[in-house]
Amino acid sequence: MSVPVRAARPADIPAMVDLLKRDADRRHACDPALWSLAPDAPARIAEALAAALSDAPQPIRQTWLLAETGDRPVGLAHVLHVPVPPIYLGADGPPGLTMPEIALAPDAPDATLDSLADAAETALREGGARLLLATQVGDPPCAPAWSAAFARRGYAPLTLYLSKTGLASARPERPPEGPRPAGAADIPGLVALSAAHRATLEGLDPFWRRHPDADARFEAWMRRSLTLADRDMRVGGPAEDVAGYLVAQPASRLHVPPAHDLSPIGVIDDFHHRDLADPESLANGGRGALALLQAGEAAFAARSVDTAFVVCPAAWRSKAALLAAAGYRTAMTWSIRRGFG
What we know:
Oligomer: single chain
Distance between the termini: 22 Å
Strand content: 15-25%
């Protein structure tokens, strides 16, 4: 028998804080270095919920769902509609994403998980989502029980977020030789290399179908990124023959729930190198790509950022292998479900 699920209201916040703090404690127990708890975690959770459940305009459309037995909350789920990055076509519109905040009370009825999953998918479909994504945090034994439930619904890995901690404590005395800070003269090379990267991505999965104006949009974003003080851009090779690039930037709440400290975590995105051109096998032993990755790690260490997430398509096996050899492990997975009805 299903468990009733409804949209959460501001009056539900105290009970929701308890459920979410318990869920954050579970993540922290599995990996204290990655999922460090903010000293004022309950207050941060309450603040995030108050903002999300207010009548104020939201930057991203989101919904919190609450499962109840009688008048007692026994579980919750968080869903939102993810904006499509401007370099991709997004023909199916913004995908619907079930966030990692699916939390169950210890004595929740057995049907609670499926009831929440049904309600999450229904809310996203009614909001216009034609593609569904779900976030799994951790690998067994740290993955929550609902990860298997979503796999049974036909979700398959799309994007991996691989993590490595201890960057600040292992800070090198000098940056790796070879890679260097990016400059305006590198932009044409970055755009050309990104075009090859995007073509490979589209071949791996139609989710990454390119926008016709992708080159111009990517160039505009790279030029803007050069002006942002909160990130570091690194390139390999001379400006006339750029061999690789990455952007080391702050993490966001799209990756880290509010109970956890965001400040020591960074994200390496837009990471590509010619060594990774073949998604099945590394070229040149991955030496150039590894040096570039280490330059990104050194940039984080210089900012006292101790943990890095690196975004990696699940089907890009050569990149995943390089990261695994460099000490990274899967900390989070975005999985996709197509053909739902």
